[in-house]
Amino acid sequence: MYVLVVEDERRLTQVVRKVLEEEGHTVDVAHDGEEGLAMALDGSHDVVVLDIMLPGIDGIEVCRSLRASRVDTPVLLLTALDAVEDRVRGLDAGADDYLPKPFAFQELLARLRALSRRRVQAREPGELQTADLVLDLRRRRGNRAGKAIELSPKEFALLEFLMRNEGRVVSRTQILDHVWGYDYSPDSNLVDVYVTYLRRKVDRGHDRKLIRTVRGVGYAVGD
After folding, report:
1. What CATH number did the domain enclosing 118 receive?
2. What residues of the chain score a pLDDT lower than 50?
3. Are 32 and 8 in contact (CB under 8 A)?
């Protein structure tokens, strides 16, 4: 699952991100309404976890703007507000569910699974594909030209991130942030090591190489 978390409380964001990544999900993070809206507008995420109380644009307005732009990504509102009218405002703005703070992480995971299932059943095949490379997001496995590729959890997360950005160059810093989160050193060579692992599994034995290095910038999958 590809999750966008929009939350200005950074400590909570780190914990939520860690919990989601330990479950094998890919996580994007934004800390204010403007940034969250900009990231959510491309509709590439499976679900958005959206705090109501945000600096700049609040969560209600972010959700309303997404629906006005016909982005149908499921939205789970996080709120410390207990008033019924606040929950009603969020649902009327187009949110799909809400979860009051503080919350149990198991309940958060269960609600996200439910929202993701609804979207998959409604409109998504549950796969990413670039040329003859296919990534099965439900079974967490890949294949190229019909031949299975065994991927570790981090290899899968890295390949998923690259494929979701097909044709776009992503920097090492972006990859570290999205795949490893806060638990990394900026000087780490993890990205280069794992890209090497992926090349052996994805490109070895194939004339067409799908994983590209853009010198001084980063990596990309596809043309």
Report:
1. 3.40.50.2300
2. 122-124
3. yes
